[in-house]
Amino acid sequence: MKLALREKIDHSARLLFRTTGLLVIAILGGIFFMLLWNTVAFFLKVKPMDFITGTQWNPSGSKASYGILPLLVSTCLVTLGAMAIAIPLGIGTAAFLSEYAGKKLKNILKPMIEMLAAVPSVAIGFLGIVVLGPGIASLTGEPNGLNALNGAILLSVMALPTIITVAEDALHGVPQTYKEASYGVGASKWQTLIKVTIPAAAPGILAAVMLGVGRAIGETMTVLMATGNASAFPKGFFHSVRTITATIAIEMGEVPYQTTHYYALFAIAAVLFLITLAVNLIGEHFVNKFRKYQAA
Amino acid sequence: MSDQIKLSAKDVNLWFGSKQVLKHINISFPKNEITAMIGPSGCGKSTLLRSFNRMHDLSPDARIEGKFALDNLDLYQKGLSVTQVRSRIGMVFQKANPFPKSIYENINYGLAINDVPKADRPGIVENALRESYLWDEVKDELQKPATRLSGGQQQRLCIARAVALRPEVILMDEPCSALDPVSTAKIEELIVKLKKDYTIVIVTHNMQQAQRTADKTVFMYLGEVIEHDTTDNIFNHPKNELTANYVKGHFG
Amino acid sequence: MMKKLTPLLEWGTLLLSTGAVCFFLVVILWDLISKGAPSLSWEFVSTLPRAGMTKGGILPAIIGTVLLTMITALVAAPFGICCAIYLNEYAADNWLTRIIRACIRNLAGVPSIIYGLFGLALFVQGLHMGTSLISAGLTLGLLSLPYIIITTEEALRRIPASTREAALAIGATQLESIRDVVLPSAVPGMLTGLVLTLSRAAGETAPILFTGVAFYINNPSGYLNQEFMSLPYHLYMLSTQHQAIEQVRPLAYGTALVLIIVVFLLNLTAFYIRYKHSKDE
């Protein structure tokens, strides 16, 4: 092939590659624009204040009401519960892997965690119905165990692999010299872990937690299947709740396109998008902090 | 020995980010001679070498000033094909970097992309392997992956890959630094032999190597050319005190 | 006495959390395998559902998931690989590159249901593709894109600069050096990332809910403009929406087990590629 032609091809390829890079921006921009457009369409019909402060989500009632609060509180409740379980377990497991487990044990545990991460959310939701639900029901005496607690436990299982992997990286990245200094003044392994290693890895652990939160807030199928989906205002862990994601999943399949209800679902999706964006940005901030610290 | 200038750099300054790595370099390399560039680590000798075949084009934070020329061709002029520059100025790297392909393909690849007629290629491959003293060792296993060769063989394959394209200049960036003495001796012998067809610039840390192979030697320090003279003068009658200290092994 | 006991207690706390995590996995696998295995048969994976889903097999769901995953790969792999090449081989460290990278990281964090909405607005309605295999495949392709970019770029980053320089130094253009030298060396790493991403996509449900999946298709044609069945959605429907839930529970277990097997097989493939490659080096 002639040189001029080869260089022309090279140049075109460079343009093609660059275009795909720009398209990535367009996709995120497109998602953002789609949510914004439909949210604006929604706010032309419903007052933003009613949306933000309304305590009732009942789009199909005779007098439709579009209050996001019950959905938002449900989402937060389930996520909070999931984190209450996943954070201690995740950090504990990460610490075990990074500080105590030998190479052989690590070679068994790590693939197990990867396997746990690979289980599809719909399968975990299914087990929430057939295993965890009846279990909770028999403990509490409720007719069924499809409630916030069930969702929280399942979400913790889904968030755990993320939290463990990122937190272990963080703990592992703490310089050996820090630990040696601690041993040098007579601290035990446990004291070193609690007083030196974990504080030193704090930004990385926080990043792990934020990533776990992001995963839990945005999860759909598990909560859709396991939390019962009652649209009343959530009363607690032992009551059925309906998260933002579950609401979209249930209602989008049934609503006619381009109605107020349809736009309302995009509006709650926009809220969800902003929350996950914020959570991810905070997580990223901590990751960067941790990297800088590691590089220093 | 002709004194015709083959390769030259004039008023060259080079920065990586805000750090100036080359300062006011003026240097020229005569045709069909071997010039060694010596100096302590970080003195800029590899950076200078890599500037000649525009290897810094891919580092976005490198900024280059000054004029580089091959014969009378301005190597950094606008519109010049960098691909063509590189096929005229071959390069051998510090660590042997054969392609993850067969021995034959390692040399044939350059011929194929540079549009050498298909019928000529097997002959050129054989010739290049003979020129690099590798033919007798590999002629029966040309289809073997190049990565299975020993370190010294890999480096000779890389030299064969460079000479197969019949460049005018071969740049060598510490070609023996990762090799054992036996392989080093073979490659040095090869370098000296290649002199009659090519202009060679070799960066080395090894002062014996410079003395054994080079006609001229350049001593660089902190991004500047301190002294440039015949190898004999540099090692036996250095004019500059820094050069004298370095060749006596007092630093670096 | 206390001195000996405390370290044991402390160590035990960590061991207990690790044990709990393992316990979760064991429960999941044990329950699905022990209750799902009796439903598995050649008939189950090779026939259509019968009698209002209460009998018969899940063949259309398997076909749907396989086709959907293939379309996802066809959409996301070329796009993602090109983008990763741009970022690792061409892009300078400037504001544009930083924006692209930030977008990729944020795309990876966007909830899957929002991809579903985007697919609905863009492909189903905007581009008039309707609820169809192609709409769902494109949606899942977008969802998979950031993961493919990230894993491909990691694979490219592991190829040393000297490999690229070797090709450039003999007069290859940058494209030739990438195509002939860099990509062939990076293939195992890229393949591992691709297969892992696809195993995730195969199990996704939320993004396909409104873009093309259907509860029942008696004639899985495989046409791109048709609706389709898929394993994860089939499991969801059987376990929550069917009118005879208790009666179809064995079928739901069987579907869950097949889904898990598909996903784990893809994962095993990825690990095998990674393992084989690490041995080769």
TrEMBL record, chain A:
The chain crosses the membrane at residues 21-44, 64-97, 117-137, 149-171, 192-217, 262-282. It is found in: Cell membrane. The keyword Amino-acid biosynthesis does not apply. InterPro entries: MetI-like (IPR000515), MetI-like_sf (IPR035906), Phosphate_PstC (IPR011864), Phosphate_Transport_Permease (IPR051124). It is a multi-pass membrane protein. PROSITE patterns: ABC_TM1 (PS50928). It comes from the Bacteria. Keywords: Cell membrane, Membrane, Phosphate transport, Transmembrane, Transmembrane helix, Transport. Its main location: membrane. Pfam families: BPD_transp_1. GO terms for cellular component: plasma membrane. CDD domains: TM_PBP2. Part of the binding-protein-dependent transport system for phosphate; probably responsible for the translocation of the substrate across the membrane. Belongs to the binding-protein-dependent transport system permease family. CysTW subfamily. This is Phosphate transport system permease protein. It comes from Pedobacter duraquae.
TrEMBL record, chain B:
Pfam families: ABC_tran (PF00005). Residues 7-247 form the ABC transporter domain. InterPro entries: AAA+_ATPase (IPR003593), ABC_transporter-like_ATP-bd (IPR003439), ABC_transporter-like_CS (IPR017871), P-loop_NTPase (IPR027417), PstB-like (IPR005670). Gene3D superfamilies: P-loop containing nucleotide triphosphate hydrolases (3.40.50.300). This is Phosphate ABC transporter ATP-binding protein (PhoT family). GO terms for cellular component: membrane. GO terms for biological process: phosphate ion transmembrane transport. GO terms for molecular function: ATP binding; ATP hydrolysis activity; phosphate transmembrane transporter activity. It comes from the Bacteria. PROSITE patterns: ABC_TRANSPORTER_1, ABC_TRANSPORTER_2. The keyword Glycoprotein does not apply. Keywords: ATP-binding, Nucleotide-binding, Phosphate transport, Transport. Coiled coil: none annotated.
TrEMBL record, chain C:
It holds the Pfam family BPD_transp_1. CDD domains: TM_PBP2 (cd06261). PROSITE patterns: ABC_TM1. The keyword Transmembrane helix applies. Residues 62-270 form the ABC transmembrane type-1 domain. It is a multi-pass membrane protein. One of its GO terms (molecular function) is phosphate transmembrane transporter activity. One of its GO terms (biological process) is phosphate ion transmembrane transport. This is Phosphate transport system permease protein PstA. The lineage of its organism: Bacteria, Pseudomonadati, Bacteroidota, Sphingobacteriia, Sphingobacteriales.
